[in-house]
Amino acid sequence: MTTEIIYQGELRCKATHERSKTVIATDAPVDNKGKGAAFSPSDLLAVALGTCIITTIGIKTDDWASESSFEGTRIEVTKTMSQDPRRVGQLDVDIYPPAGIQLDDKQRQIAENIAHTCPVAKSLHSDLKQNITFHW
């Protein structure tokens, strides 16, 4: 995967995914001299964790029965910053599978294990607290 990133000045960047040409804009947050007009780089870290969790669950569960589908799952990620040095200190991930999903205990455990072991979760520093909660 290759991404081209162009600094546009005023603490804004444009990142282009080479293969798809999808563009993401970033802006520094208002508490760090930015305008908060787009995702901040640390916001994208939170987005990366949430989307990695559900994508990895989807990869594992795509061949499960349709009543066990995670399609429509909603995820809320709340980012808390820490200081000295400034960094993401905590990510609270709340996962809301679709109403009516039918999973046995083993399937729920598989999904919960995936959430804690997806590639992004395993790539984050151990000092970053990850609170992952499924709302079954």
TrEMBL record:
Signal peptide: none annotated. It comes from the Bacteria. InterPro entries: KH_dom-like_a/b, OsmC/Ohr_fam, OsmC/Ohrsf. It holds the Pfam family OsmC. PANTHER family: OSMC-LIKE PROTEIN, PROTEIN INVOLVED IN RIMO-MEDIATED BETA-METHYLTHIOLATION OF RIBOSOMAL PROTEIN S12 YCAO. This is OsmC family protein.
